[in-house]
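== Fold encoding ==
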Amino acid sequence: RISVVYKDMCYTCFDSALIFHGITQFLSHCFCFFKLKFNTVVIDLGEGCFYPSHPELAVKGTWSVDKMRKEIARLRSLGIEPIPKLNFSTSHDTWLKDYGRMVSTSDYYKVCSDVIRDVCEIFDKPRFLHLGYDEESFGHQSRYAYGVVRSGSLWWEDFLFFVKTVEKQGVRPWIWSDYIWGHKDEFLAKMPKSVLQSNWYYRQWFDLETIPKARRPHLESFIDLEKAGFDQVPCGSNWACDENMAGLVKFSRKNIAPERLKGFLMTAWTATVPRFEPKLMKALELASAAYAAR
């Protein structure tokens, strides 16, 4: 019931497909998933996958459809469920190339729907498709040469477009839930219950009475989502500290009903290349230990 994001494309998708370098080496360790109780890998595709409907999105090193399907088959043969992720947050959509500067236009909607259809076909109609949608703010784009942020009704219009597009493929949408931090009431009122929620929290504080004020909404959102009846896959990390995952599992089991707690997500938020392998493997170990101690 624990999932792992082993690669986020957003931070390295500039001019090459370095995003996929090292994946084969890392996945050679997949045998440990059985020992460590993992059964799912969320793959942030970005420009690392060739999209037949839009070959212009490919870059040097992009994996062909055949190569991607072979990797998907290999993972499934190991008992690991591969789940695709395409991040449509404007803070993380460099992989869309020029289309990332056409947000909320007819051209944008067409290419996004085309790519979603491609991915659902390549992954043979996966159970979920993660839409990303995190950190869309001017603060997160303060160092970008070009920034764009949707707000108000437009944020919801675009988001619900993605939800409908994914559901049209017979697949369940999955998102990062951090938009709730600053838009609690409208999020709880407008967010479809069909969307699987991954609120993320990477710090070591789990006491709502003593947690730093700035972090309280991040932790409290797990409870808000539970009270509203959303299915959740809480996400933790060793990005900021090693203590996080154990605390997150304990907190989530205490505050989220078992029927709505669908698993846990662990990410190291570091590049999947050999020099970062120790941190990646440490993430697996920490998540496994946290789950085993439930």
In short: The CA atoms of residues 57 and 261 lie 36 Å apart. The beta strands are 2-7, 38-44, 81-85, 128-130, 172-176, 196-198, 235-237, 264-267. The chain is about 35% helix and 10% strand.
